Amino acid sequence: MPALHYLNPDDLNFPPVEEALDEPNGLLAVGGDLSSERLLHAYRQGIFPWYEDGQPILWWHPAPRMVLYPEELHVSRSLQKLQRKNTLQITADQAFPEVIEHCAGRGNHTRPGTWITAEMLDAYKRLHREGWAHSLEAWDQKQLVGGLYGIAIGSIFFGESMFSLQDNASKLVFVALVRKLYQQEFRLIDCQIASEHLAAFGAREISREKFMQELAAGVNQETHWNWENV
Questions:
Q1: Which among 10, 64, 188, 221 is placed 20 to 30 Å from 81, CA to CA?
Q2: Quick one: pLDDT at residue 85?
């Protein structure tokens, strides 16, 4: 059984992803920091941080991996009907700090997302300023009622979290994201860990080997999405 790895703070390298523990959810390493350099190096290998206040930084690489190929998006009839009646405005990168704050439970009327620590908030806001982290927002008039955020590297979008203050707002935002990624020929959306909610949209599990093949083919592809135009 592989041993848990402790990262050298002066070295960005991670252990081979094949050495992730089988449970829970592919724990690979402990420690390091949330510098932009380390985070981007991690994401390019499909590694992501996930921990709670009071814990050291924990790095994960689940297997199997839940992903959504944009061309395989499934929209239920009920959601299609809702879309036709939709009056919400969908935007991109217009309120990233507010979106991630809501996902973390720091906005009004949301349940706490305890894994989005203050340290993570600062790190992902920095990645947004640097052009790597992006958000989509749903607005009712001038009120932010839903959104999601993630990291885009090459033709891979690494989904992180979403929130909804109004029924189905996050679902509408997610569908808008996937359709935009499809138009821009993105290869894959990384959904990380399996959930029935994402499976309903067409997401499915693939092996670690297949996922790493997709990353190798996608993270260095050029994309030209105007994130301000959804």
A1: 188
A2: 86
